[in-house]
Amino acid sequence: MEENTKQKAAKELAEKLLLDRTKAARKACAEQIDKAMDFGEGYKDFITAAKTERETVDWTVKAAEAAGFRAFDPNHAYSAGEKVYYNNRGKAMCLAVIGKKGASQGVRIAAAHIDSPRIDLKPIPLYEASELCLLKTHYYGGIKKYQWTAIPLSMHGKIVRKDGSEITVNVGENEGDPQFCITDILPHLGKDQSVKKLGEAFTGEDLNVLVGSLPLDAEGEQLYKLNVMKILNDQYGIVESDLISAELEFVPAFKAADIGFDRSMIGAYGHDDRVCAYPALEALFDCEVPERTAITVLADKEEIGSVGNTGLCSEYLNYFVCDLARAEGLEPQHVWSMSNCLSADVTAAMDPTYASAYEAGNSTFLNRGVGIAKYTGSRGKGGSNDASAEFLGWVRRILDNGDVLWQIGELGKVDQGGGGTVAYDVARLNADVIDIGVPVLSMHAPFEVISKLDLYMAYKAFKAYFEAE
Of 383, 342, 349, 343, nearest to 363 (Cα)? Predict the structure, then answer.
């Protein structure tokens, strides 16, 4: 009897003092899981339809206008509850719901990126060899090259003709469309390849996309290349030189699908980072009249360093906030100093198959809820934001008060590798920033996996953040 009493007391003390890292799915009620399943259906439609940054912006503009948002006018002073968006060159966006207090006590920002690793074309891509027609490519972002061979690819993007007219391209997604692929050598002849290190078995110059195998029915040279170019000319009215002023991306042709007998997960291309962009957008769409102005920013170029005028190294988010501040008679630097941001980016989910790369006690897991990362970076937190204890404490309270299942962890073992986000790009403006996002399996692969429960908890987290007083 005395032993049972001691065990009971120890259990009660443990519940009071120790951090409970039990799988959150066990704590989630049936209603939460049902809502997560429903929320996942909308996300699957989104992630299948929006496979590039341009397509994500197009989708967002339509969804935002349906939700009552209107194009932003920097010369207009907005009232509480008004909803605006700024489209930056069709590849990045800022959206805001004006708060009761406007920007007078700072703004709240959820910042996600909408670019993903992919295969881009070289400026002069089309060539023929061995009676085949192919495209030369230059991969974008951090990929494992071998994962992109022998899978169906679709082509997305924009071509700008010499006369300035524009053509939107999307081939390989619809029923009946042709698809494309990067070939791999058969194992029977792959002896030389098989003895190479994994990172050396394929080079960037090997990632050539197969696009044709029939010659033009004529006499002359380059008939395979000419036949493909004739098809493109017939369909789009372009000539080869128009490919110079084109942004064409090859991405996996897979559609989003439920994963597992229990349908608890979603497999798709581009979870990193559109799996955070979607709940950040939906949370803003559902935000009526917040206390402080709420902003969701969608950024391009994160996978290559957030560079360019559509990446968050650019000033477009800063200018957007400055315009909001000045319209209220406020000094922008003072607004930024009172502002904070959730850097909405994915984190690595613990994978038991590759457990040696993780430190289990400080990893995030599928179905434990949205993941917080106090810092990212690599080897001594290099390239990291490293949020303050005060801000992390405030975020914890917001999530707990909003009944959000959440967890905290690092991106693998110390010195194993690491990664970065847009957090430091916002922090440089003197705002408090922390990373929070959905854990992902097979990150940067052509087919990544996330949990529907974690996705839904990301939505709840962003909504609680926007609506907190």
Answer: 349
Asked if residues 339 and 107 have their Cβ atoms less than 8 Å apart, the reply is yes
The span from the CA of 301 to the CA of 53, in Å, is 9
Q: Where are the alpha helices (DSSP H) in 50-188?
A: 53-66
Q: Prior bond to 206 cis, omega within 30?
A: no
275/310 Cα distance (integer angstroms): 19
Distance of CA 199 to the CA centre of its chain: 24
For 301-317, write each residue's pLDDT tens digit. Answer: 999 999 999 999 999 99
The angle that helices 271-285 and 452-467 make with each other, rounded to 10 degrees, is 40
In single-letter form, the type of residue at position 184 comes to D
Binned at pLDDT 50, 70 and 90, residue 23 comes out as low
What is the model's pTM? Answer: 0.95
Q: What is the DSSP letter of 426?
A: H
Token readout for 240 is 């080869």
**421 pLDDT tier (thresholds 50, 70, 90):** confident
Whole-angstrom distance, CA of residue 273 vs CA of residue 110: 13
| Helix spans in 352-429 (H) | 389-401, 423-427
Nearest to 286 by CA among 455, 436, 67, 111: 67
Q: Rounded to an integer, what distance in angstroms lies between the CA atom of residue 282 and that of residue 286?
A: 6
The answer for residues whose C-beta is within 8 angstroms of residue 47's C-beta and 6 or more apart is: 256, 266, 268, 269, 270, 271, 274, 275, 278
